[in-house]
Amino acid sequence: MMVSGFAWLLVFQLAGEVMVRGLQLPVPGPVLGMLLLLLVLIWRGGPSDNLRNTSQGLLGHLSLLFVPAGVGIMVHGHRIADEWLALVVALVFSTVLALAVTVLVMRACRGRSSPTTSSAEERP
């Protein structure tokens, strides 16, 4: 039943919202709720079939969530036209910054792990 899967998702979203508002944390409530759900699922050994089916159903309709963003772009097209340069600079800068941080994190993670040898290096 998808109802129990939705209930799980909504309960953890509510728990995240309550924790964020109660503790005045600087993170969105749904993000904290999904982190809590992840921890519970790890503790339980994985999701139930109901939660798995509900999640797959939601992911199948994920593209619908982009409709409001597209409508916003169409409604505020004149503002985008007026501020296109700032938007392009911000997008390029944030993309380059994200790539640089990813490279640094990967190098740091790679440095911590034990070096592995490939099968080609082991051959005489």
Automatic annotation (TrEMBL):
What is the protein's given name?
Answer: Holin-like protein
Keyword terms: Cell membrane, Membrane, Transmembrane, Transmembrane helix
By its UniProt entry, which InterPro entries does this protein fall under? Answer: LrgA/CidA
Listed transmembrane segments: 25-46, 58-78, 84-106
Q: Which Pfam families does the UniProt record give?
A: LrgA
Q: Which organism is it from?
A: Giesbergeria anulus
* Localization terms from the record: Cell membrane
Could you state one GO cellular component term attached to this entry? plasma membrane
Superkingdom assignment: Bacteria
Q: How does it sit in the membrane?
A: Multi-pass membrane protein
Q: What is its main location?
A: membrane
